[in-house]
Each structure stands twice: as C-alpha cells, then as structure tokens.
Write a structure and sequence with these properties.
There is one protein chain. This protein has 254 residues and is an alpha+beta fold. It has one domain: Porin (Beta Barrel). The strands form 2 sheets. It has an 8-stranded antiparallel barrel with strand order 1-4-5-8-9-11-12-15. A 4-stranded antiparallel β-sheet has the order 2-14-13-10, with helices on one face. Strand 4 and strand 5 form a beta hairpin. The two termini are 40 Å apart.
C-alpha cells in the first residue's frame, strides 16, 4: 500500500474518530455546567385567607382588631415578573437519565396589592432564592444534535429582606412593625430541549412550573390611647405564587 493511501486512510480514520467524539454529548458519566438566566412569571398569584389576630381586652384594642379584619377582607395581591441569574450542574447517570442541580442568585420579587380603596404597586418586596434538584429523562441518543427532556423534582424557596412599603397608609396600618414570608418545599415539573453545538458546548432551553406557596405575616404595633393599652397585631395569609420559570443557558460538558 502506498504512503499516500496510508496517509489518506489515517486522515479518514481521524475524521471518523473526531465525528464519533462530537456525537457523544450527554452520555453516561458526563457532567455539564450551565450558566444563564431565568425569567420568572407568577401564574395567577394571589393572597388568600388573610386575618388579623391580637389583643382585644379593652375597647381600643377591640376596635383595632375589628378594623383590621374588615380591611384585610378586601385585600388581594399579586407577585410581579422577575429575572435571575442561574448556574446548574447536569450529571448523566445513563445515556438517558440524569439529574440537574440549580442554584440561582437571589432575585427581587415585588408584590402589588389591591383593596377597596385602590391598587398599590410595590406594596412589599423580598429577595427570593430557589435551589432545586430535578431528575430528567433525555430523549434521542447521545449522537443527536437535538435532545428533548422531561423532568420532575423538588424546589426549596426561601425569602429574606422582606419589607413593606409603609408610605402607603393602608400598608402602614397593617405592617408598620414588619413583614415576613415563610420558606417552603415545592414540587417541580420541567421540560425542554438541549441543542448540541459540538461534543462540549450546548444550549439548554427549558420551562418549569412550581406550585409555590408561602405564609405571609405582617405585624402592626398599636400605641396606647389614654388609659387603654395598645398592642401588637399580626395579620397572616397564604401567598400563592405558582410561577412558570423560562430558562436559557449555555453549557460546557466536562
């Protein structure tokens, strides 16, 4: 066999090996690190079951408690859309089954409230973090450019830096002593598609739905009035957020 033929065969073998390497993205044992963004869209967010509890052992306290409960009976709220930076690690146990851990930078969530007197944008806000882990089934084969997936997992959402905008008189009446939102564990439903540029680089687009709820608490401090003692009144309710999260991220397979 001539030297020219040997060189040609070696080149063809090299190209074949290169093509086979490119075609093996998302195979068993692979880890891909993704970075990108998430657009968070609360779905029909609202507040339900608001009620106020506190002392009512004198006429001044009883009048305040009655007034609070009349006010909160007309209150509703919604959470505005927001965006966050996310980092994920996606590990493949087999050529089709993997798990993805997602960590996101805390995002600012703003709450708009309405009552019988009007609507109040940015009535409250909080920083929310939402780490999650999702098991995924990846369709098609490691050699395919397009790889759709479906997943199910669990999310832990916690809130900090919760503040109420006390410039609004109605908000000030209910929350002049502070506000808080409880943390919660929530299921995650997820679907999307991976587009493989080559063996290492890929683009991942997905959407998740999280039936997220939190207990909202607002504290109001009522001063003394003459001989009547004031008191601390706490209003609580269930905040339903139920967001859809749309993510777009670029990944590198190790």
């Amino acid at each position: 066999m001539s030297l020219k033929k040997n060189v040609l065969l070696a080149a063809i073998a090299g190209l074949a090996l290169s093509a086979s390497q490119v075609s093996m993205a998302q195979k068993a044992g692979d880890t891909t690190i993704y970075v990108g963004g998430a657009f968070i869209m609360p779905n029909s967010s609202n507040v339900t079951g608001l009620s106020t509890d506190g002392p009512s052992s004198n006429p001044w306290q009883a009048a305040n408690l009655s007034g609070y409960n009349k006010q909160v009976a007309t209150v509703n709220g919604s959470v505005d859309n927001s965006a966050a930076f996310v980092v994920t690690a996606f590990y493949m146990f087999t050529d089709h089954i993997g798990a993805e851990l997602t960590l996101g930078a805390p995002t600012l969530m703003k709450v708009t409230t309405t009552d019988s007197l009007g609507s109040y944008s940015n009535a409250a806000n909080a920083r929310a973090a939402f780490p999650s882990i999702v098991a995924k089934y990846v369709f098609n084969e490691p050699g395919d450019t397009w790889r759709p997936y479906l997943g199910v997992g669990v999310n832990y959402t916690y809130f900090n830096s919760v503040t109420a905008n006390t410039d609004y008189p109605n908000v000030n009446a209910l929350a002049n002593g502070g506000a808080s939102l409880s943390s919660s564990w929530n299921p995650v439903l997820n679907g999307g598609v991976i587009y493989n540029f080559n063996d290492h680089w890929s683009l991942n687009a997905g959407v998740s739905w999280v039936p997220l709820t939190s207990t909202a608490s607002f504290t109001s401090n009522v001063p003394n009035l003459g001989p009547y003692a004031g008191g601390t009144y706490t209003t609580t309710g269930k905040l339903n957020i139920n967001p859809f999260d749309i993510t777009l991220k670029v990944g590198y397979r190790f």
